[in-house]
Design brief:
- The protein is an alpha/beta fold.
- The protein folds into two domains: about 5-180 and about 360-385, Rossmann fold; about 200-360, Rossmann fold, CATH 3.40.50.2000.
- The chain is built from 15 helices and 14 strands.
- It has helices at about 20-35, 45-55, 75-100, 110-120, 135-145, 160-165, 170, 215-225, 245-255, 270-275, 290-300, 310-315, 330-340, 345-360, 365-375, and strands at about 5-10, 35-40, 60, 100-105, 125-130, 150-155, 175, 200-205, 230-235, 260-265, 280, 305, 320-325, 385.
- The strands form two sheets. The chain has an eight-stranded mixed sheet, sandwiched between helices.
- The radius of gyration is 21 Å and the shape is globular.
- The protein starts with 6 loop residues before the first strand and ends with a strand.
Amino acid sequence: MSRDPKSVLVVHPGAELFGSDRMLLESVEGLLEAGLHVTVALPSDGPLVAELKAMGAPVDIVPMFVLRKQLLKPHGWPMLLRTALFGAIAAWRMLSRRRPAAIYVSTIIIPQWPLLARLRGARSISHVHEAERSGNRWINRLLYLPHLASQRVLVNSRFSQETIRWALPALIRRSEIVYNGVASPPHSTPPREPLEGALRLLYMGRLSPRKGVDLVLEAADLLQRRGRQVKVTLLGTAFTGYEWYEEQLREQAADGDFEVDFAGFHTEIWPFLAESDILLVPSRMDEPFGNTAVEGILAQRPVIASDSSGLREAAGGYATSRLIPPDDAKAIADALAEIADLWPFIVNDLPSSRDRALRRHSPSVYRQRIASAVSGRSPGTGWNKG
């Protein structure tokens, strides 16, 4: 059977609808718009599957080797070897059946696909969504190493690119920065004015210690003690195995003298942003980028984010955002108080912040760049090359 030169296999390590999952949808849409014949391989079923099928992309659920950090510890080695073997066999069979001309590898934690693509004579394009400069350099190098087999490596921020340079300089020569395209409603809901009653704070994302969700509650408590009423909405759920952290958050919330809504996971975030006053992105650890911060700016809401890693690129440079030291609840509370005190001036600047974010993170431009990379065309005007 001859190989279809327009056939593309997209592989992704999950089936949820968080940051990298949403970017996968944008990538697939760009490939389809370019007239490529796309199939998506996922390791499990989930809400992402329905979204992909709705846009016309066939989905195959296949056993897949996903390199989680716990597998790198000695007690995880038997599972690592077992899933690596079964994953390689399943991937080889799928490549034999589909015979794609190109493979788009979404994230660095599915390391077998670039190597197998090279063996099968297919082009591979790795899209790096991860960057943890504070982690172990040798583990980072191990994660990046298989992607030397890819002909092209896309990264979502300058911080991600510098992390690659730090961990595996040989990979940097084929890397290109493509800032995330972030979807936005055509018209965002203006913030309320005047700012009366409780200050409505919103957190969106995974409930995990590294994301600093407990800092949101601590900052809210500090603000409440200063005499300013607050209400907190936590939009998201915990990773499997981190249920203990959500329980800890619920206990922390019960000890506070303010309302906390554990809203759970919702695919539609804009109604929650419309009901909020300020979005908080208080990550303790490195983030490769910060889609959530950009979504807050697009929704015409002030954003308070940690002044670190990719969050600095996502939220920096806007008059309506505040960057604060990581892991500092008092700094969050101080920034909240400042924004509330300057509310009329902040509100006046929100439309211009939204306009800038729309230009910088246009989904249509992002989709064109992904399609160019996967199809092997030269980067178009405005392509960020490192």
